[in-house]
Amino acid sequence: MQDDGDAIAARKPAFDPVQLIGAIAERRDRSAFAALFGFYAPRIKTMLMRAGESAEAAEDIAQETLLTIWRKAVQYDPARASASAWVYAIARNLRVDRLRRNQRAQALALYEAVELDATDGPDGPLDAAEIERHVQAALQQLPEEQAAVVRLSFFDGRAHGDIAESLQLPLGTVKSRIRLAMGRLRSLLGDAL
Hints:
The chain has 9 helices and no strands. The protein is an all-alpha fold. Helix 2 crosses helix 3, helix 7 packs across helix 9 and helix 8 crosses helix 9.
């Protein structure tokens, strides 16, 4: 004789993300998508919040992850990775992309704050000259390898790939130096700008 728990377990279908992803890929099955969303969205959100994201950002990335699964379900290959590994890799990659976009936006904002603005009025050139002095002083406080890549990138307008080639450095090293330099410049120039 079965107890009620066994009977419920026997009636409830097992959660199989591989089949659900397959149903999305083959038939654009909305109920399969809803099941995946209900299972993975809260787990992804928790994972991202533990990694330091705000609740709002974590929720956005979780939703974007599931939408990516909807769009790219046909690309999933169960022979290459488990469904969970594939889902969490998508979430991690989206988080990394978001962090990079935010870093680029901060770097651009710093660069634009330093640019001379011709519409500033009579005090504009003096203010711009003062800002430029602060930036030059801050650049001198950076290690030379960081200052060099910042000058090449922001003042000479060279692409990261060109900088890597001319300095004979790996592209990742150039990007790391720029990221570290921009963080240091933000802290040095915080009050000056």
